Amino acid sequence: MTIKPEQLRFCESHEWAGVQGELATVGISAFAVAELTDLVFMAMPKVGQKVAAGEEFGEVESVKAVSPMYSPVSGEVVEVNDALANHLETLNTDPYDAGWIMKVKMSDPSELDRLLSWDAYQKQCGQN
After folding, report:
1. Residue 128's pLDDT is what?
2. Does this model's pTM top 0.70?
3. In 3D, which of 89, 57, 92, 97 has the Cα closest to residue 74?
4. What is the pLDDT of residues 69-124, one digit of tens each?
5. Domains of the chain
6. Contact by Cβ (8 Å): 44, 58
7. 121 with 10: CB under 8 angstroms?
8. Using an 8 Å Cβ cutoff, are 9 and 72 in contact?
9. DSSP letters of 7-31?
10. Partners of 73 in the beta sheet?
11. Is 125 left (phi over 0), alpha (psi -120 to 50) or beta?
């Protein structure tokens, strides 16, 4: 499945969610990756971990800063992209498809309504 950013919902803190049924695939935006520059480490969530919308689930570290990552939705982590931790460059080349971080079985899909559309996110980032 190829994910297009226009199909995603975004947090103001630069995480995205792509939804298929009750599963939300979560990652961080290309804008965030570009702002962080050289990524050196990512603390990944664990399968079975409970996450809550707006709460920290991990962090990404660059040569410039350590940034927390916040979950766009609440639920249980059912899959983690383990390969990403050792290949952070994937976030530079394909942040919306191969660069996904976790898949969450959502407990409250209505939380998606609070997230930004692609156009609104672009405006927030000064891209439009």
Report:
1. 58
2. yes
3. 57
4. 999 999 999 999 999 989 999 999 999 999 999 999 999 999 999 999 999 999 99
5. 5-106 (2.40.50.100)
6. yes
7. yes
8. yes
9. G-EE-TTSEEEEEETTEEEEEE-HH
10. none
11. alpha
